[in-house]
Amino acid sequence: MDHLVDQGLARGFGTYPLTGETLARAIEAAVQTGYRAFDTAQGYGNEADTGATLAGCGIPRDRLFITTKVRIENFAEDRFMPSVEASLKALRLDRVDLLLLHWPPVGGNVTPSLQLLQKAQELGLTRHIGVSNYNAAMMRVAREVVEAPLLTNQVEFHPLLDQTKLLAAAAETGIPLSSYCSLARGAVFQYPLFGEIGAAHGKSAAQVALRWILQKGLAMNTMSTKPENIRANFEIMDFTLNPAEMARIDALTATGLRLVTGARVPQEPDWS
């Protein structure tokens, strides 16, 4: 079961790389639109800004779902819990709703950080736990190491990247995937197919790409600073892509566009 999808949290608002007033205005527009799931991370440098804005947004705490992520530099046993406690202080929370490991550690031994993640949950610092940027082999290890359910593996997922292996691993392990870079940082707009399909539904190219992700069974994060785009990214529940349209978009995954690579993130795992 995908908790995020089943609880109506399939559409989350991502905060990277926003800070300050720009972030505050974007979150305020997202709240007004209807977003209730918000995603930040220690590495984004915006936990305090996110926490301050959400604390004053007028939505009761129990109706918000707030995610943050522990950066690799804090995976050491003497740094993990203090870093999470610092995140909670910055976010003005007693606990987060979801705590993720942002990347697998360099070298690929995921067990120690997974054990610390589970301990954070046992200590009441987070309601749910999960991982991010894990490959299929790491997902299998995580399922064996962690006794508690892992709510998600948050990964780059969009119509221009074939993630068949991770989808298979999700089905095998019971760890659902969720999406970031959901519009491939605008690269989907280079393909007329999305606009063509959108015209048949009275929807935009972006809405078609996001609907494809939703129909793949994933929750997703999107980010924009423009209120009209924030609204459009949210308004994807009132239409359905038919099997032929899904298949046409599926064919584009062969493009193989991976945006988050080792050139930017040395700890990127071996996706093969």
Automatic annotation (TrEMBL):
Homology family = Belongs to the aldo/keto reductase family.
InterPro entries registered for this protein in UniProt: AKR (IPR020471), Aldo/ket_reductase_CS (IPR018170), NAD(P)_OxRdtase_dom_sf (IPR036812), NADP_OxRdtase_dom (IPR023210)
Tell me the domain of life: Bacteria
The name under which this protein is listed is: Aldo/keto reductase
Q: Which PROSITE patterns match?
A: ALDOKETO_REDUCTASE_2 (PS00062)
User: What are this entry's molecular-function GO terms?
Assistant: methylglyoxal reductase (NADPH) (acetol producing) activity
Give any single GO term for biological process.
methylglyoxal catabolic process
Active site (record annotation): 44
What PANTHER family does its record include? Answer: 2,5-DIKETO-D-GLUCONIC ACID REDUCTASE, NADP-DEPENDENT OXIDOREDUCTASE DOMAIN-CONTAINING PROTEIN
Q: Where is this site: Lowers pKa of active site Tyr?
A: 69
Q: Which residues does the record give as substrate binding sites?
A: 102
UniProt domain NADP-dependent oxidoreductase: residue ranges: 17-252
Arranged from A to Z, the UniProt key words for this protein are: NADP, Oxidoreductase
Q: Which Pfam families match?
A: Aldo_ket_red
